[in-house]
């Protein structure tokens, strides 16, 4: 049984909060115990992060920090198999996903932001003055200070380093609160931090739940200078309220109910391949995943049939077996939520094309499995079509015109991502312009250039991460005006 400790000021320490179990979602077995940070440990972590700003870390040149970031990437890659096993045991996600996405991207984030900080510039303005001598304005990029990093469980290492890497690149220190469901890789990263020589207190990890626990202790801590959060919209609202005290900046990457729009001139085979992944990858537990599909009437039947066949083609099982293509959901509680929508779809009279239940799997009976599911026939007002489920399921609605497709896709409080499938390039540009989201993919999904702005519109978030946009959040720009 693994024991997960908090990582504070360069040392692994037990917390004064109530310890809780860590389960393997594939079987439901208890595989670890997590030591929860109480208020005292959160105070200690924030204190260590504050002190580290005044230590060697705060005096390091950008080049020295960049050198350490590259060592962090190498350090993760050197222990790739350990990170991989830790992520698989926490999430149950297949080896094929974690080894291609979670761990390589977790390491790559440090290299990406090392490159970014080396090439980032600031603006300069020459100005005229009445005496004719003029003045020069230039901006300095200074770290914000202590950053609270609050993470979800769906892509634990990837989403955590997506925040930690730019925060450190900019010279901040961090206190990370990983999801209570996935404590492993954030903890393991503490060992890598020490091994590569990151000064103590720069990276801290506190474990525990959100409300009334480590998450809330951290986000309400008066000595935290900024909060970066990825998770549900409702939690984002609570965190924004917490950040209001002391007027701390927040970066919020929140939920979605993402639409896919498929026109009848789309390349059907390529579209099915892409949209199949968008609906079912990572058991549907991807913030960018598609849970609403709008398909032009001319190809509706063929598309729905093809998607249902994709849904039925997944192979459940041991996540360490390379042949497994679909894992379980993260927890019993999350499965209950997803199955409540499966029941709601039945009650609302949906036509079920695939899935809709729980697979029978010998040897994995205690795991949190659900079947990939495709429905049609529900009204847009059904909660199945309007609320984020975060499971491997999608509802497909036919449309006739481009205007109708846009209207249907935009009729949501969320605005994270949309994919458009068509061979008509002009139409793709028009729809991309009209859709109210932060991220549009045309004839692809989850194709990520890490320099691009990433984030949501409407209730899907505030701010953008990625490339220069991350640096904007993790630094304060200070203008210096020099009279010549
Ligand atoms: P969640 O909001 O339940 O939890 C996220 C984190 O917040 C956890 O660490 C949790 O302990 C903490 N937390 C909860 N309440 C808190 C509080 N009051 N104060 C401080 N911390 C608190 O989300 P989840 O279930 O872990 O993740 C799934 C959600 O994340 C989905 O809605 C999904 O769409 C979203 N998500 C968004 C993105 C994005 O980039 N936009 C990426 C991944 C996931």
From TrEMBL:
Residues 12-480 form the Aldehyde dehydrogenase domain. InterPro entries: Ald_DH/histidinol_DH, Ald_DH_C, Ald_DH_CS_CYS, Ald_DH_CS_GLU, Ald_DH_N, Aldehyde_DH_dom, OHmuconic_semiald_DH. Its EC number is 1.2.1.32, 1.2.1.85. Keywords: NAD, Oxidation, Oxidoreductase. Pfam families: Aldedh. One of its GO terms (molecular function) is aminomuconate-semialdehyde dehydrogenase activity. PROSITE patterns: ALDEHYDE_DEHYDR_CYS (PS00070), ALDEHYDE_DEHYDR_GLU (PS00687). It comes from the Bacteria. It is an enzyme of class 1 (oxidoreductase). Coiled coil: none annotated. The active site is at residue 253. Belongs to the aldehyde dehydrogenase family. NCBIfam families: OH_muco_semi_DH. This is Aminomuconate-semialdehyde/2-hydroxymuconate-6-semialdehyde dehydrogenase. The lineage of its organism: Bacteria, Pseudomonadati, Pseudomonadota, Alphaproteobacteria, Hyphomicrobiales.
């Amino acid at each position: 049984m693994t024991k997960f400790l908090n990582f504070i000021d360069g040392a692994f320490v037990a917390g004064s909060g109530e310890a809780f179990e860590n389960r393997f979602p594939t079987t439901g077995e208890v595989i670890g115990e997590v030591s929860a940070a109480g208020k005292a440990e959160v105070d200690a972590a924030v204190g260590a992060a504050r002190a580290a700003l005044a230590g060697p870390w705060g005096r390091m040149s950008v080049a020295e920090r960049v050198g350490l970031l590259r060592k962090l990437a190498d350090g993760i890659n050197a222990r790739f198999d350990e990170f991989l096993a830790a992520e698989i045991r926490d999430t149950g996600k297949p080896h094929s996903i974690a080894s291609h996405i979670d761990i390589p991207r977790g390491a790559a984030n440090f290299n990406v932001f090392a490159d970014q900080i080396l090439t980032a510039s600031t603006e300069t303005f020459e100005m005229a003055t009445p005496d004719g001598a003029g003045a020069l304005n230039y901006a300095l990029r200074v770290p914000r200070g202590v950053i609270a990093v609050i993470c979800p469980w769906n892509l634990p290492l990837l989403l955590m380093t997506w925040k930690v890497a730019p925060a450190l690149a900019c010279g901040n220190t961090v206190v990370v609160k990983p999801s209570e469901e996935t404590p492993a890789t954030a903890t393991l990263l503490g060992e890598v931090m020490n091994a590569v020589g990151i000064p103590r207190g720069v990276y801290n990890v506190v474990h525990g739940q959100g409300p009334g626990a480590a998450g809330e202790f951290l986000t309400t801590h008066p000595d935290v200078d900024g909060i970066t959060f990825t998770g549900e919209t409702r939690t984002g609202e609570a965190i924004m309220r917490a950040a209001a005290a002391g007027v701390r900046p927040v970066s919020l990457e929140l939920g979605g109910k993402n639409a896919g729009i498929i026109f009848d001139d789309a390349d059907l085979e390529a579209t099915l391949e892409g949209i199949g992944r968008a609906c079912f990858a990572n058991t549907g537990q991807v913030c960018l995943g598609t849970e609403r599909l709008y398909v032009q009437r001319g190809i509706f039947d063929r598309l729905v049939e093809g998607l249902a066949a994709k849904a039925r083609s997944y192979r459940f099982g041991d996540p360490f077996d390379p042949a497994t293509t679909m894992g379980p959901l993260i927890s019993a509680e999350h499965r209950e939520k997803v199955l409540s929508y499966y029941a709601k779809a039945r009650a609302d009279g949906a036509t079920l094309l695939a899935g809709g239940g729980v697979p029978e799997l010998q040897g994995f009976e205690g795991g949190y499995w659900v079947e990939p599911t495709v429905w049609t026939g529900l009204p847009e007002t059904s909660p199945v079509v309007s609320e984020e489920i975060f499971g491997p399921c999608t509802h497909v609605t036919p449309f006739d015109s481009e205007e109708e497709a846009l209207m249907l896709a935009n009729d949501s409080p969320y605005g994270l991502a949309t994919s458009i499938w068509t061979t008509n390039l002009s139409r793709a540009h028009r729809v991309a312009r009209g859709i109210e989201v932060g991220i549009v993919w045309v004839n692809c999904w989850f194709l990520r250039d890490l320099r691009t702005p990433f984030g949501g519109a409407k209730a899907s978030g505030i701010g953008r991460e990625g490339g220069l946009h991350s640096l904007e959040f993790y630094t304060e720009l200070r203008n210096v005006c020099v009279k010549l």
